[in-house]
Amino acid sequence: MGPASTERRWGSDPPDIMALEIKQSMRLSQQLVVTPQLQQAIKLLQLSRLELTTLIQKELVDNPCLEEEDEESETERIEAKEESQGEQHEKAKDEDKGHEHATDEVGSKDGELKEPVNFDWENYVGTYNSPGGNYEKVRDGDDLPSFENTLKQSETLQDHLLWQLGLADIPEKDHAIAEEIIGNINDDGYLQSSVEEIAKQLNTTPEEVELILKKIQEFDPVGVGAREVKECLLIQCRHMGGDEGMLLAKVIEEHLGDLERHNFKQIAKSLNISMERVVEIERVVHQLDPKPGRGYSSAQPQYITPDVTIHKVGEDYVVVLNEDGLPKLTISPLYRRAILGEAMGTQTKDYIQDKLRQALWLIKSIHQRQRTLYRVTKSIVKFQKEFFDKGVAFLRPMVLKDVAEDIGMHESTISRVTTNKYLHTPRGLFELKYFFNSSLATKDGNGVASESVKENIQKLIAQESTAQPLSDQEITKILKEQHHVDIARRTVAKYREILGILPSSRRRRQI
């Protein structure tokens, strides 16, 4: 039945369905490939100044073909150029004109190092020094410690508490409990672990831990070892003593919420005291420290070094890149000359070629990063000239697309180059991202920058009456009537929270 039906379907000669044929075909297609050079350039764009310096220092250690240019040798070369003959000087200028175009020829397609045409090695290569180096001879009698050993380490809060523990009237057998408690106190001075957890850790009773904790809470700074803000303030009130301390403790214990909301009438009525007395108590409470451990914080302040500086010259603004502190890289002449020699193994030559190529790519990527940063900053200054002339109120709305179209780059490139970059201006220090903000509609059809609206909200609240502070709805009405800004109440509330301003109910003061 099966074979007969097969013959009826295919006929007398059924096809060979298992036969496969292999053919060659050519197809032309385009594919986007991110080269290692492009990856490195993209990575350098988004690095901050500190991260870039760290990366350069790492490359100086890892790549023997890279050297940091000495300022003295750079000065000597500049003086030598000035003393050179006029013909050589003109030749050098011609080479400088073609330098930017020539640096594009970093390597050939076959992977071999190709030195760019008219490449100005004199600007990239420092004066050759022997591997031995020149070291200053230490003068007789100079037996000073290293610079690192002369730095004084700041005292931490834990160090200060442990020092007091050695002087406190606490039995030696309880020092383990005290040290465990001190070890669980954070930088603000608060106990992070519970008494039960510490007791379980040391196989003791919570009552014993609580007893030692009370003694530690008598240490300096006053208020240390508390588990919450109310306990911290109560400890400080106990140290004040007298009737004043007792009254403060009662207000904090029973009316801390009313004090926060400035509900002075309720406090005066409950404690049977005058409103003036409540105001005095509030002032004293504000003098207490809710974070007593901050004075012993080991955190070091982070200083911002601007990447770009803007100077006002006449009516114009000049953009200047800040390259102070950035290592100036140059190619080691030792390895550049070694690659030209013949007495070298194949593996060694390939290694040096690869390191030279990486060094050239890094130098070019850094220069490209600086050029892009300059162009982006110059475009920002062009769009925001009114801000630099008149202030925040004249900051115009701007997005990444505006700058991208102005300088002919992609928005992602603008986003990367403005990340963690700072601009020093006559009006202060700003992050480049600050100048990109959303737009709010106005009655005349023009947009206004969100930062400008925040500035207006801050001014309105600064001028309000403390007895009748402005609500978010009232601020919305004023912005619409006086500044013609079409804004919702929830947007005003969001901007107020960003500015760190309390709501009207907590800004109200009855006296």
Task: Describe, in plain words, how this protein is organized in 3D.
The chain is an alpha+beta fold and 511 residues long. The chain has three domains: 34-89 and 300-437, no CATH class; 157-296, no CATH class; 439-507, Homeodomain-like (Arc Repressor Mutant, subunit A), CATH 1.10.10. It is built from 24 helices and eight strands. A four-stranded mixed sheet has the order 3-2-5-6, with helices on one face. The chain has a two-stranded antiparallel ribbon with strand order 1-4. The protein has a two-stranded antiparallel ribbon with strand order 7-8. Helix 8 packs antiparallel against helix 9 (175-183). The chain is extended, with a radius of gyration of 36 Å. It starts with a helix and ends with a helix. The relative contact order is 0.09.
